[in-house]
Amino acid sequence: MANPGYDGMWLPTDQDPRMQMGPTRGERECLVGYLEHYRQTLALKCDGLDAAQLATKAVPPSSISLLGLVRHMARVEHSWFRRVVEARMDVPRLFQDEAEDAGFAFPEADDELVRESHALWQEEIAHAREVLERTDLDAIVDVHGDPVEVRDIVVHMIEEYARHCGHADLVRECVDGRAGQ
User: Fold this and answer.
1) pLDDT 10s digits, 117-164
2) Which of 76, 87, 99, 143 is most buried as measured by Cβ atoms within 10 A of its Cβ?
């Protein structure tokens, strides 16, 4: 299969929203910049696909699909920023039911499920941004009885997105051959 796109790249560099940020200054800007970069990467990996393509599981028996990754990352954003950073443990976790497999399992995918899943993910990202804006990176939060700095949670989020963007890259390549960047 030939390299689709722009010399095998996802977008021309001057059109890639991730490349428009410029150099970062300071720890907060650097960490938040990397987190935003990976959030945008996952969104780009889903761009232009229909519900069936987004629901494609590329590597059986794994349940990983692009739609599942979007739902899972909504769950991750929700859990870390609402439940842990804001200490709202009374808020039920998203996709907690074993049958939902942390967001990776879902009913037959259709346009409505795609819209709802994407909207949920974007709502959780917007909330997480607001929480980060008002929270000091040095703030200590409780993670399963251990004191953890918020900066560690942000680094964990970067790691979580980076790992899953690698999965998304492989799934997208199986769906239509697009890879890289």
Assistant:
1) 999 999 999 999 999 999 999 999 999 999 999 999 999 999 999 999
2) 76
Evaluate whether residue 69 is within a structural domain: yes
Largest alpha-carbon pair distance within the chain? 51
DSSP per residue over 96-162, as a string? -SGGGGGGT--SS--HHHHHHHHHHHHHHHHHHHHHHHHS-TT-EEEETTEEEEHHHHHHHHHHHHH
Q: How far is it, in rounded angstroms, from Cα 55 to Cα 50?
A: 9
Instruction: Identify whether the C-beta of residue 121 lies closer than 8 Å to the C-beta of residue 132.
Output: no
Domain of 147 in residue numbering reads as 37-44+56-176
Name the domain count of the chain. 1
Is residue 104 a part of any domain in this protein?
yes
Q: Please choose, from the candidates 118, 117, 115, the residue with its C-alpha nearest in 3D space to the C-alpha of residue 106.
A: 117
Quote the pTM value: 0.89
CA–CA separation, 152 vs 125, rounded Å? 18
Question: Own/partner pairs for 131-135, CB < 8 Å, 24+ apart?
Answer: 131/81, 131/82, 131/85, 131/86, 132/32, 132/81, 135/85
* CATH code where residue 100 lies: 1.20.120.450
Neighbour-count burial of 166, counting CB atoms closer than 10 A to its CB (0-12 exposed, 13-18 middle, 19+ buried): exposed
